[in-house]
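Running co-folding for 4'-deoxy-4'-aminopyridoxal-5'-phosphate.
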Amino acid sequence: MIYLDNAATTQMFEGGVDIYKKYACQSFFNPSAGYAQSIEIAKELNVARDKILNKLGSSKGNIIFTGGATESNNLAIMGSKRNGKWEYVFSVGEHPSVYNVARELESQGHIVHFVGLQENGQIDYNQLEKVLNSKTRLISVMHSSNETGAINDLRLVDKIRKDKSPQALLHVDGVQAFCKLEYRIDDYNIDLYTISAHKFHGPKGVGALYVRNCASLKNIVFGGGQENGYRSGTENVPGIMSMVYAIENIDVKQNYRRVKELNKKLKEIFSKDENISYVNGNNPYVISFGFAGVNGETLMRALENEGIIVGTGSACSAKKAGNRILENCGLSKDKVKTHIRISFDFNQTIDQIEEAGEIILKTYHNLLEKVK
Ligand code: PMP
């Protein structure tokens, strides 16, 4: 099998499984209890927070552990909500764990603005500038798209915010950028930043929310007051520790270089056929390819039979018809249907990509013959 759906999830590091086991079976104590073993775990959690801050490139700020990016995004948005005539701004390119929270805010009667995308998948900065004002409470823009690999210019977003709505908080869903791209969140003045462990070889169901200033946030879950009251519930210590193991074992710079080569190779193979097009931003990990004349889902299933696993977009929304994000990049509904998503991992080799590329081409041409 050649697995090319790494934007959906990644395989856990073996070493991370050992760490998981250690904190599940030996150091299994509840970090909130009062005895020495628990106090030690609580300390280790704080060390883990510092390691995440360091990898994020933040000298200040707080880390709240959560049950993954969906929860982090919900906490960031719903926790920033305030009474009164505030407005909330989102890009239409957001993952459902942001987009559907925005829809919920709207249905609660709040004023919500959706900003469109450019052809390259980035947010339309002119539109963003137009909707921001002195009533904007929150701007939520993803760092890199899970569908197209577009990378938003967060420095520009921050600049626009400073000019038009200095009071607004900036939330960034960093799921497809963290541990993949080189950056320092301090450079963008980000207030809230979401990460998810299973996208970088950590376990599923664990993530974090970076919060620059906790005064801006309110908890949305009520209970025992863990995580300084911002996220009640006993922390998933084995998950957090193996997430941090993954963070420490990822060489962002080196992996980026490798994946860039894989990305280039696949585009090269597909360039033989003018009926294959793509939407791809500067993030080499994710490409959306269009195969004119075939249905992306049909191609995905045919490839599965050949041992090649690809995606048809966000796994969370793969069962839904259409693709909001590609349509907002200006692709017609019919064209969108021909797309599949290919996402790489740094462990993959050029040989594997060559093999996958040739199989994809052959399978595509076989399907084309059938529909003729
Ligand atoms: N945001 C983005 C950009 C994602 O790609 C995903 C995963 N598809 C999520 C949020 C949700 O992450 P999780 O599975 O950790 O809830």
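Result summary
The chain has a mean pLDDT of 96.
Residues 2-9+252-371 form a domain with the Aspartate Aminotransferase, domain 1 fold (CATH 3.90.1150.10).
Job closed.
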